[in-house]
Amino acid sequence: MANAGDIVAVLSSDGRFIDVGRACLRVLGTPPEALLGTPVLERVHPDDREEAVRRLARCGHGESVEDGGPFLCRVRHAAGGWRHMETTAFNRPDDPKVRGIVIHARDVTDRVEAEQRLRASEALYQTLARSAPVGIFQTDRDGGIVFANPRFAAIAGLSPDALHGHGWRDMLHPDDRVRLEADWAEAVASGQPVLLNVRFRGADGAATFALCQGSPLSGADGQVQGWVGTLTDMTEYVRTVDALLMAEARTNAIVDAAADAIVTMDGEGIVHSFNPAAEAMFGIPAADMLWSRIDRLIPDIGSLLQDGGLAVYQPGGLPHGAGAVREAVAVRGGDGDRFPIEVSVSAVETGGRRVFTGIIRDITARKRSERDLIAAKEAAESADRAKSTFLQVMSHELRTPLNAVIGFAQVIEMRLLGAGEVDRYIDYAGSIRQSGEHLLAIIDDILDITTIEAGGLRLNESIVDPSDLVGEALNLVAIQAGKRGVPISIDLEDGLPMLFGDALRLRQVLVNLLSNAVKFSNPGEAALVRARRGDGGGVELSVADTGIGIAAEDLPKAMTPFAQVDQSMARRYEGMGLGLSISKRLVEAHGGTLRIESAPGQGTTVTVALPPNRRVVDA
């Protein structure tokens, strides 16, 4: 007993120490002599004393070997702790060397504590496995389930009892089974971790998407013995991704099909998306605009939004300027052509970053329509003013000769001057004739301008001599020039070519121009009619006077039908204001141009330029 490694002691029949081995000091920290005569139960943990008493009692009844096997109890250490001892008791009352109960005690504290730690670890693992939000499993080499937590069963759609073995494979979607078997076999062969996307089909036919991650368990020989891993339910993630992809596809389809340009950009104006309508509008591919600044296409984009540039949102504040429709000028990427646009910008802020979406519309057609509407309105107003002017002038121009006609006719009819005043009556008849001719000239001018405006003018073309044309026109205005005291000079270039045109209409043009020159010249001041070759081989006919002249801003008015520079009722010069307008249209009908050079107080020069194709080429 002195050299025993375990504690060996002899107890008396009443349970006191008779003899104790030296191992007592090493194991319990108590010298053997300190235990002699003391009850053994004083050293046993209170919770274990009842069983110790029972076992000692059985030994006292002569049982030499305990039926229950070794007794595990806790024995107090001298330092105050407890040691776990595995004890056996043999009763040897007849042995003269013993005469008592032999106790054999082995210190198993380390083993017991290791078992306790293992049980605690196992309990912790089981608790974690039961409460884990993912499935946890362990399989054998062939993939049969050895252990799986309840979450694994829920994801697979099976009861916990049905999980063990290969029953979980029956719940796999049919389309995934072959792939799973192949991937599993490859993982077993390579000994590498597995990462599989699988689907489980529930009783209702709905699919559960899961991600299976497993790591191999290798034996001492390095061969894969099984797998441990997790099974994560990815159904909500997959549905969310599908919904996002669907929403993105729907948004992209809307953006791509939109008739307006849609551009997204960041707070620095860097373009992140550029739809097909934007490509068509700006004439530049999306690839060339991505990650470029938007002010490349809209130079004044910064001035469109409040608070400076694109910063329409202030931190912690409300949006400013977002969503408002504003007009701007854009630049086409290819040719640099500038065109008007309408821009509406909205902004969102996520994670401290602002993203702006601009909807851009090309309003070139609308602006053109607006200009056309304004022009039409102005034309209508001008036409209304022209109508009023026409009626005003007509009332004056027609009433004056008609008053003369009626008045002189009444004098003749009533013989107010007596029967002997035949010469006076003849003069009155001449005045009636002149007034009638004046009225006829007015009506002819009105009919001419009406025919021209209606597109009914037809030229009766023949060969015309420019010199004869000038002479005939001078004869027709000679009387008017004589009455006004305005001489007319002639400047004809030698060898003028013959022209092909309507002699009556060309003569009418010259008569109108000469009549105006005589009318607006002061008595004693000469007018000039000139005919010469023009640039390019055509012929130019011009009439110049030194009369009152026309201001540059009044030239368009002088070319407008029924308009005169002096529109007042007390104007000095009579007339319908049709002469220049009719002449211009008659010249244009011959393919020529009529231009006016004039200045107030310096006279007027009107030039008719007939094109080279009006010249008759000598045979």
Features:
22 strands, 619 residues, alpha+beta, 5-stranded antiparallel beta sheet, 15 helices
Protein model, in words:
- The protein is an alpha+beta fold and 619 residues long.
- It is built from 15 helices and 22 strands.
- The strands form five sheets. The protein has a five-stranded antiparallel sheet with strand order 2-1-5-4-3. The chain has a five-stranded antiparallel sheet with strand order 7-6-10-9-8, sandwiched between helices. A five-stranded antiparallel sheet has the order 12-11-15-14-13.
- β21 and β22 (603-610) form a beta hairpin.
- The protein is rod-shaped.
- Residues 194-246 form the PAC domain.
Topology:
Blueprint: E1 7-11, E2 17-20, H1 23-28, H2 32-35, H3 46-60, E3 71-76, E4 82-92, E5 100-107, H4 109-131, E6 135-140, E7 145-148, H5 150-156, H6 174-190, E8 194-201, E9 207-218, E10 224-233, H7 235-257, E11 261-266, E12 271-274, H8 276-282, H9 286-289, E13 325-331, E14 338-350, E15 353-362, H10 364-414, H11 422-453, E16 462-464, H12 466-484, E17 488-492, E18 499-501, H13 503-520, E19 527-533, E20 539-545, H14 555-558, H15 579-589, E21 593-599, E22 603-610
Parallel strand pairs: 17-19
Antiparallel strand pairs: 1-2, 1-5, 3-4, 4-5, 6-7, 6-10, 8-9, 9-10, 11-12, 11-15, 13-14, 14-15, 16-18, 19-20, 20-22, 21-22
Helix pairs in contact: 10-11, 11-15, 12-13, 13-15
